[in-house]
Automatic annotation (TrEMBL):
It comes from the Bacteria. Pathway: Amine and polyamine metabolism; choline degradation. One of its GO terms (biological process) is choline catabolic process. GO terms for molecular function: 4 iron, 4 sulfur cluster binding; metal ion binding; oxidoreductase activity. Binds 2 [4Fe-4S] clusters. One cluster is coordinated with 3 cysteines and an exchangeable S-adenosyl-L-methionine. Residues 19-308 form the Radical SAM core domain. It comes from Candidatus Enterococcus palustris. This is Choline trimethylamine-lyase activating enzyme. The lineage of its organism: Bacteria, Bacillati, Bacillota, Bacilli, Lactobacillales. The gene is cutD. [4Fe-4S] cluster 2 binds at C59, C62, C65, C104. Catalyzes activation of the choline trimethylamine-lyase CutC under anaerobic conditions by generation of an organic free radical on a glycine residue, via an homolytic cleavage of S-adenosyl-L-methionine (SAM). InterPro entries: 4Fe4S_Fe-S-bd (IPR017896), 4Fe4S_Fe_S_CS (IPR017900), BssD/PflA/YjjW (IPR040074), CutC_activ_rSAM (IPR030905), Organic_radical-activating (IPR034457), Organic_radical_activase (IPR012839), Radical_activat_CS (IPR001989), rSAM (IPR007197).
Length: 316
């Protein structure tokens, strides 16, 4: 049994997912990420600390949260028309006490992040054991970046395996191999992101070169891992046919000892844009239309079919 004292910071546990691995799955989202993708749909996952999200349309500026917050994060200010307005002082770190969330009469506030032990997470996971068994589903760990809290994640996956649950992780791959290799024996499927083939373009898009990521992908294949490579498709940034071809030929070359389950092309979407406003952040691609038409996706799909690899375009 895993010791109960060790914790990880989790920001969401989502049940009944059908996208991140086979069958019906429970997704466990870890807080904290080393990269800064311009299109990130989970901005609440990036920072490792607790964060308060506020739905402005629900808040009536009652000020109750300012009275109960022990860190004085919640404050009031006078607007141009002499009204009192609530705001969150983002320079002060949230302690995660959740008092504001509990006391808000309009349910406008949500504290992102909860420190949980392996037994506490497993208690949630095991509630849906019948769904995993009937659908060949399981558990997927994501984030943020799961290797950011890697030792806890490995222990959680090991506990899942002991209970006969299929395991998967979503990873950007940006970690030391010494950490990544710990996942090999407890992970049935790696959902591995390749965001751009060119190292410098990769740095421009996410804040770091991809050398470490590509090295980890190669070593995972060499270790015999089963991998679905995921390529986010961002119009004008990484979707040129030259870039797609170079990436896929590279994957074809290195997928020797492991099993390449699929190469999933994930077209850009704006599903997480509202979260930026709730965190008082500006969405980096706010004023740029990067959505794809069905015809554009069909042309990309036709082009990729020539490589005789399990390539598919996946729209969420």
């Amino acid at each position: 049994m895993i010791p109960a004292k060790k914790t990880a910071r989790i920001f969401n546990i989502q049940k009944y997912s059908i996208y991140d691995g086979d069958g019906i799955r429970t997704l466990v989202f870890f807080k904290g990420c080393p990269l800064r993708c311009k299109w990130c749909s989970n901005p609440e996952s990036v920072e490792s600390g607790f964060q308060v999200m506020k739905q402005q349309n629900l808040c009536d500026d009652c000020g109750i949260c300012t009275e109960v917050c022990p860190k004085n994060i919640h404050k009031m200010r006078t607007t141009m028309d002499d009204k009192q307005e609530h705001y969150i002082d983002r320079k002060i770190s949230c302690s995660g006490c959740r008092i504001c969330e509990e006391k808000c009469p309009k349910n406008a506030l949500t504290v992102m992040g909860q420190d949980m032990t392996v037994p506490e997470v497993m208690e949630v996971i095991l509630q849906d054991m019948l769904f995993y068994m009937s659908s060949n589903g399981g558990v997927t760990l994501g984030g943020g970046e799961v290797t950011y809290q890697g030792d806890f994640a490995v222990e959680l996956l090991a506990e899942c395996k002991e209970n006969g649950i299929h395991t998967a992780i979503e990873t950007c791959g940006y970690t030391k191999w010494e950490m990544m290799k710990k996942f090999v024996d407890v992970t049935d499927l790696f959902l591995f992101d390749v965001k751009h083939f060119d190292p410098e373009k990769h740095r421009e898009l996410v804040g770091a070169r991809n050398d470490r990521i590509m090295a980890n992908l190669e070593q995972l294949f060499q270790a015999g891992a089963t991998i679905s490579v995921r390529m986010p498709l961002i119009k004008g940034l990484n979707d040129s046919l030259e870039t797609l071809k170079a990436t896929i030929l590279y994957i074809k070359e290195i997928q020797t000892n492991g099993q390449l389950k699929s190469i999933d092309i994930l077209p850009y979407h704006k599903l997480g844009v509202a979260k930026y406003e709730q965190l008082d952040q500006t969405y980096p691609l706010k004023d740029i239309d990067m959505s794809y038409t069905d015809d554009e996706l069909e042309k990309i799909r036709d082009y990729l079919s020539q490589f005789e690899l399990p390539v598919r375009v996946v729209k969420h």
